[in-house]
Amino acid sequence: MMALDGIRVLDLARVAPGAYCAMMLGDLGAEVIKVEAPYEPGSPPLGSGVSPHPKNNDAERIAAYHPLNRNKKSLALNLRDDKGKAIFHELVKGADVLLEGFRPGVAKRLRIDYETLSQMNPRLIVCSISGYGQDGPYREMPGHDINYISFGGALGMIGDQQSPTIPLNYVADYAGGSLHAAFSILAALLARERTGKGQYVDVSMTDGVVSMSALLGFNYFCHGTVPKRGQEVLNGGGTYYNVYATKDDKFISLGCMEVHFWENLCKALGREDLVPHQHTEGEKKEEIRAFFQNAFRQKTRDEWFDELREKNIAIAKVYDLDEVFNDSQILHRHMVVEVDHPTFGKVPQVGIASKLSDTPGQIRSTAPLLGQHSEEILTELGYDTQKIEELRVNGVIQ
Questions:
Q1: What is the DSSP code (8-state) at residue 77?
Q2: CA distance linking residue 203 with residue 133, whole number of Å
């Protein structure tokens, strides 16, 4: 048994935030049906949440390794066609959750918005993930993670004093969007147990970024302080919470905020005289920074880690991605798993982060090819072979 057994999710997402959210729900047991547009010649390149077309020479391999579409079925359905829309509406009647990432207004034009669909299924939960939300002066604006973390304040606080540093697309897309959406959907499912009704969930990736600034917001609202890039304890200003280059041109990270960690670090480096100066500013702080920079250059990253990890010091190796997937802790926690595939055998994928003791998640299937389950899903809806073939010939399905 898995936590979300019996929950059916219709995934209309085309890009990573929605696709990753649906992946997490699928990992915990939900039946996820990707409703995708049939392939058309000249279509854009494969997106992060789009299933590869079978005619792609590398399609099977892409699908085997593609984590965002695992535990999902693919229905290639033309929602611009009335017959395609009718099929979709039939699916909605038996669904629990619909997840979409269209720009505001698109779902309404396609007649797949919450107001329309809740008339067909009052228990349906519809979640929209967008950059700025379904209302407000920015609702129509296009954007990506870099734009959302700009308005959300995160980008302005990350980097050195000269320039912001772009932190990949983890912050808005995944934390601000995917995780907030998954959390909100689960909350709506729980609420439905009490009320019997579904509801609409409006997730703005920008809102998610702002929400994660709650503690910083407290300091601003209460004390009027505005964090400065590269000058605060947690964004590069502290000597004891920072990264330092090592002899082999790699990096070690320190997180010695607590006094006892700081004391242990100073003693390990032979500078017990620095213990009283953890929070000293000015020239002394720059002296300490210069000492750390020089000291850590004397040994390799791994040498420092092996030496200091045993001395109760908050320290870590700064990894490249290939190192992450070979680390003993990551492997012990099953964050790299092997999934059976009929062609490629054991396929490695990133594991499931949520560890539930009684109802653990599971990767039951690798990602599908575009339209791989169209016939199966339509058969379940009562369509016979002749009707399915007619729909395929007319371009309604693929």
A1: B
A2: 6
Q: How distant is the alpha carbon of residue 148 from its chain centre? A: 15
CB 158 within 8 A of CB 145: no
**Which residues 6+ apart lie within 8 Å of 150 measured at CB?**
156
Instruction: Render the burial of 277-311: b for 16+ CB within 10 Å, e for the rest.
Output: bbeeeeeebeebbeebeeebeebbbeebbeebeee
Q: Express each pLDDT in 266-301 by its tens digit.
A: 999 999 999 999 999 999 999 999 999 999 999 999
172-201: pLDDT as tens digits: 999 999 999 999 999 999 999 999 999 999
CA distances from 339 to 64, 154, 350 (A): 9, 36, 10
180-213 residues labelled b (16+ CB within 10 A) or e (exposed): bbbebbbebbeebeeeeebbbbbbbbbbbbbebb
Tokens describing residue 194: 């009490």
Give buried/exposed letters for 65-80 (b at 16+ CB in 10 A, else e). ebbbbbbbbbbbbbbe
Q: Choose the catalytic residue: 173, 180, 207, 373.
A: 173
CA angle 137, 141, 146 (to 5 degrees): 115
The answer to whether 172 and 205 have CB atoms below 8 angstroms apart is yes
Q: Which of 135, 144, 306, 384 is catalytic?
A: 144
For residue 144, indicate whether it is catalytic: yes
What is each CA distance from 111 to 54, 100, 102, 105, 114, in whole angstroms?
Answer: 29, 13, 13, 10, 9
Residue 311 and residue 254: Cα distance in Å, rounded? 13
Cβ distance 229 to 154 under 8 Å?
no
pLDDT for position 14: 86
pLDDT tens-digit series, residues 233-273 = 999 999 999 999 999 999 999 999 999 999 999 999 999 99
For residue 42, count CB atoms less than 10 angstroms from its CB and return exposed for 0-12, middle for 13-18, buried for 19 or more.
Answer: exposed
CA 46 to chain centre: 18
Q: Is 334 a catalytic residue?
A: no
